[in-house]
User: Fold this.
Amino acid sequence: MYEPTKHLHHDFEAQVIPANHTVDITFSFYPREARKYKETVEFEINGLSRQKVDILGIGTDMKVRLH
Assistant:
């Protein structure tokens, strides 16, 4: 149920997961600035319940050193 943003993407397509099976979901974090980020991802389970998961991250200033 999560719409990707500029800083947090996923590779998951909504689907029915059979009993006793699992699905891996990869989230990619691309901070755009040096600050704290917090996104709440909501999963719908069996069309009856929802589970929220908070994803936290910190962007840092880019540093480049030339030798």
User: Anything to note?
Assistant: Residues 8-58 form one domain. Residues 41 and 54 are 6 Å apart (CA to CA). The chain has a mean pLDDT of 88.
